[in-house]
Amino acid sequence: xxxxxxxxxxxxxxxxxxxxxxxxxxxxxxxxxxxxxxxxxxxxxxxxxxxxxxxxxxxxxxxxxxxxxxxxxxxxxxxxxxxxxxxxxxxxxxxxxxxxxxxxxxxxxxxxxxxxxxxxxxxxxxxxxxxxxxxxxxxxxxxxxxxxxxxxxxxxxxxxxxxxxxxxxxxxxxxxxxxxxxxxxxxxxxxxxxxxxxxxxxxxxxxxxxxxxxxxxxxxxxxxxxxxxxxxxxxxxxxxxxxxxxxxxxxxxxxxxxxxxxxxxxxxxxxxxxxxxxxxxxxxxxxxxxxxxxxxxxxxxxxxxxxxxxxxxxxxxxxxxxxxxxxxxxxxxxxxxxxxxxxxxxxxxxxxxxxxxxxxxxxxxxxxxxxxxxxxxxxxxxxxxxxxxxxxxxxxxxxxxxxxxxxxxxxxxxxxxxxxxxxxxxxxxxxxxxxxxxxxxxxxxxxxx
Length: 449
Ligand SMILES: O=C(O)Cc1cc(O)ccc1O
Ligand SMILES: [Fe+2]
Known about the structure:
single chain, 449 residues, mainly beta, Jelly Rolls, 9-stranded antiparallel β-sheet, 34% strand, globular, binds 2-(3,6-dihydroxyphenyl)acetic acid, binds fe (ii) ion, HgmA_C, metal-binding, dioxygenase, iron
């Protein structure tokens, strides 16, 4: 153990700001001053660069961090394929999970808790588009875990950035760059390559993950909204340096690489980063801090007004992935059908519910820990009972979604569903479409002349 007089930072201590250049040292003087890679870094540490964009990426996109650690990350045995209970590694070499693209509206009952697995073995790919090999697209995972990762195990994904939407429980995430405690109603992002270990201080956890195979999340433009609102930059929290000193015990390093799991051994902790600086780091955000904007006159705005984070494609305004939430909010629109309009979109919409009830689905069936997918041009909108109620409601100001939090992963890509998502999970609702829209009646009355 390091002598405690040097460990001046507490376990969970954050630095605030989105896309802010942060620096942190767990021992004073561990960060070199005025240089990144001195001949001898302070205290005999190794300097290591972790890049999240190409070296030559434009400045406004460039994300890299410098890590000062006891041993470099490269000090491990070769990786061997490893089977996990949720992803098989015995497929032919390039077998990415197969996606079934189907135009039906899909909805899933709540995914089960699973006390028998840890974080790594809890990841089930349910839907996605593109391919981590080509660094295109995204994957959507459901996780449900009840066990801590082994005390000497760490994990990273080479495939993309994990946006973790916690639905149940608390995640204690020890990352190379420090610790994050992710609590109910919080999300967190762990960028590609960062090594971490997940423990469960309050028991079982469950939730959703969007893995972004290309680019990184940014805050949406605010346009005429101005310089504040939606998710404010200062509410994003990055960890501070926190390290262990263990160069004698055996560790297993797990890598998700092209959708498959590999394991390597090393004789030292991966969590030995004494100091770091840069723009490439994990962070968390409390959805309760979202400053929700909406119509204060009439009509229902596009849900893009609720975007927390976006990952743009090369075409500005068109996202590979938007993370959108439906927080508690006031509806005051006059002469307005207040729930979502009926729609067919060129974008696909994967939705989940963290808790409470979503205001477009009064008829039930969209439950916390469940999900829905409305793919490219798949027609959807309020269910029949929501339509009936909203068309006849007295239009006084009402607060909707009290205690509720729905979210959407929206993508320009056509999202396919995996075999697990369609069949093995056994959660697909056979009657979703009929249940939601089958009871819609024509109200058309031709004007009499
Ligand atoms: O389908 C949904 O419930 C999500 C959604 C909400 C909304 O207010 C407008 C469009 C939209 O796709
Ligand atoms: Fe929609």
